[in-house]
Amino acid sequence: MDFLNVMIFISSISFLGYGIAYFKSTEMKNDFKRFGLEKAGALVAILEILGGLGLIVGLKFYPILLISAGGLALLMFLGVAIRIKSKDSVWISLPAFLFMVLNGFIFFMSIQM
């Protein structure tokens, strides 16, 4: 397994976990309330799950990999922006930033395939 596939696997498992956790965790739901995005929480969780699944499927079908990685990078960019707007600390914002960079990397590496 090469480096890119490892990064895809890490990202996909993480987003599947985050997406599923939203439906089980009141803490994650409370974060969306704090951001003023209570109604968008379920949609974001579903997009995370679809993105995680898309990364896995994308290992065989590259257009799906591009869409999934690009979509997750965009989703995390918006997450970083919301955390900045909410004046969250760098430490709390770091996971969203790292996943934005990771999925941006996957996206740009996948373009070259």
How would you explain this protein's 3D organization?
By secondary structure, the chain is an all-alpha fold. It has one domain (3-111). It has 5 helices and no strands. The protein has helices at residues 3-24, 26-34, 41-57, 62-85, 90-111. Helix 1 packs antiparallel against helix 3 and helix 1 (3-24) crosses helix 5. The protein is globular.
Secondary structure blueprint with pairings:
Blueprint: H1 3-24, H2 26-34, H3 41-57, H4 62-85, H5 90-111
Q: Which characteristics define this entry?
A:
single chain, 113 residues, mainly alpha, globular
Q: Sum up the overall morphology in one term.
A: globular
SSE arrangement, N to C: HHHHH
Overall radius of gyration: 14 Å
| Oligomeric composition of the shown chains | single chain
> Structural class of the helix and strand makeup?
mainly alpha
Q: What low-confidence regions span 5 or more consecutive residues with pLDDT below 50?
A: none
How many individual β-strands?
A: 0
What is the percentage of strand-forming residues? under 5%
Mean of all residue-level pLDDT scores: 96
The helical percent reads over 70%
Please give the alpha-carbon distance between the first and last residues: 16 Å
Task: Summarize the biggest pleated sheet.
Answer: none
Tally of distinct domains = 1
Number of helices, where a helix is a run of at least 4 consecutive DSSP H or I residues: 5
In short:
The protein has about 110 residues and is mostly helical.
